[in-house]
Amino acid sequence: MFVRPLNPDEVLSALHLIWEVYASDVAPLQNPEAVAGFRELIRYEHIMPRIQNKEVILFGAWEGTELCGVGGIDNRGNVLFLYVRKEWKRKGVARQLMQGMYQFCAQVLVITRMTVRAVPASVTVFNHLGFREVAPVQNVGAEIFVPMELLIAPGSMPAKKPKKRIALIIVGVCLLIALLICMVVKEAASIVQESDTYAEEQENPFGDYGNGDSGEYDFGMGDGSENEQQSGLDQIPEYEAEDLPFEVKDETYNYSPENQSSVTQQFEIYYPQLDGMENQDIQAKVNDELKNCAMETVDRIYENPDNEIRNRVLEAESPVIADFVKYKVTYLTQDYICVAYEDYSYEGNSEYSYVGLRTKNINLKDGTVYDVKDIVNTDKTFVNKWLKEMQSEADDKSLLADQDTDSLAKVLSGEDTQNGTFTPVFFMDKDGIEIGLSFHYDKEDENAPDYGWVTAPFQLNDLKDSKTDSTFWDLVK
Fold this sequence. Notes:
This protein has 477 residues and is an alpha+beta fold. The protein has helices at 11-26, 32-41, 44-52, 93-109, 123-128, 197-200, 280-294, 296-303, 307-315, 372-375, 380-394, 405-413, 472-475; strands at 2-5, 56-63, 66-74, 79-84, 113-118, 132-133, 138-140, 143-151, 166-168, 191-192, 239-240, 247-255, 264-275, 320-332, 336-348, 353-363, 369-370, 422-429, 432-439, 451-458.
């Protein structure tokens, strides 16, 4: 299950879902005037202009390609919609939608509270989501509601807009970082509230979303064109050869205890597995590599935590151990597979949240795994060229400025990761090859960037003078 803002071409399906659930669960409890007013509110021609103007943001909860639930807020943080299909109720869908909207308000709208006009029957639900009543029951026209608000924790600031191959720390907003409020959430049912008047009566000191500086943080909202800025795995143009003699299947590892202890725990790990290879021994070896790479953080922070992780949990007021991993097969032929994994984790408490990248490059003929040191000679000429590209991609000339050429050569070769601060990565894609680093800085390090990983793009010909004699180069000619 994952949550993200909806694209324009998904709005109509979302409105159908909203009306279907409203008509079944809410309308029978409302008077005809209120039902008619809500029906008018969600008419496509009424709400679509507001979405295009970024006055309203709709979020979808997805299980694969199925839209399971829809949430919506306006650009002042007022909850407008929270609906879940009947078959997906009591499975945490509404909770995850609220988490995504909460973090969007914190890091994109940069506001300090969310509000909702809750019908009396839903007040308890919103209490469980962290909201509190701020006024007694109101009766305005055909509507009876309780004004409620949720204060947003300070400290979540928007970072710079991503350029090409970088992944911002806040990219995981709709995937994992929203677990900050998981500790006050138990369960949520499908609910819907329309909340224009209450917020419009308040003065908005932050301005309208879409105007001024905050408008650039659109989290993918827009016209859906190829020219829109993307980041992370979504931006990588994958390549897959035709007529492959095997299949790539999705596998998932999910864990979230039914009865959470004092430690919030949640894991949702996606990874690929090959099926149908002629050599079953190599297939088993490849699949182990692909799964173990996906599970690396789970092993490090949960299965086999070190003393530092244990101490964070013991000392935290609200400890969190959580990990979400998604993947993309960026390059696939009969003889070679490259998989990139984007990892969003909480490592002991809410202060230690990370976005990271791992890659796995495997020769499907013999199971050989390739690292950066296997494909390029990390000499001074290459390192200087690579660093320039990295700084250009990040649009940040200070990136790695505290490292000299020799230390970067050791980092890229894996000889010195500086206590796990750097992980060298590379992947093939449709356009060429990317070589970069995933960052895991100490939270107190003043050199820590605003992003979790950066990779520099090269055409294969660009690396002709730096290539090793590895068999890798025979696979990607």
